[in-house]
Amino acid sequence: xxxxxxxxxxxxxxxxxxxGLARPAWASVDPMLRDYYDTEWGVPVRTEHALFERISLExxxxxxxxxxxxxxxxxxxxxxxxxxxxxxxxxxxxxVARLLQDEQIVRNRLKVxxxxxxxxxxxxxxQQGGLVDFVWGFQPATTPEPRTQxxxxxxxxxxVLLAKALKKFGFVFVGPTTMFALMEAIGMIDTHLLDSxxxxxxxxxxxxxxxxxxx
Length: 215
Description:
Layout: H1 4-7, E1 15-16, E2 22-23, H2 31-39, H3 48-61, H4 66-79, H5 85-89, H6 93-99, H7 109-125, H8 131-136, H9 157-168, H10 176-185
Antiparallel strand pairs: 1-2
């Protein structure tokens, strides 16, 4: 008797590594990216501090590879007061000048200022229930079910709505594509390939359940 998995069409897209685990191509070679994929990417983030960091780093990643940002993450954390929203919100022009001289981070004036702006918006958003509840309020009812990386979209109706809503509260560098990447990274949607060993591990979405929400 065959199992449902045996009867299903063969899946493709993920690469099986020496450890026997299947991952997408982007996470199958570089040990740093592989560890990030295995331990962080797609894991639900539900604290203000951690979510503010993710939004900040996604903004810095715009136009660059995620590997660059991940390698510089320790430097970003040091430069931006460990992404404490209250401390970053208090940064002034002297801090901007300091950051633009810091080789440990991506020295982009617009993105540096955006991080400070978004810290202030994060603090202000507490009056509306806080950043975490606000962002997670845009979680869609279904999640993608990609067989290959080409099946993974780069934006969605939910990411468009989230981007617009954040902009209304003063956030910048939060376009639909950036917010879709955020939603992937924090487990709001599950874009792990169907044959990846990480598919369905967030506890938010089930594995191969037709996109049904579990919580």
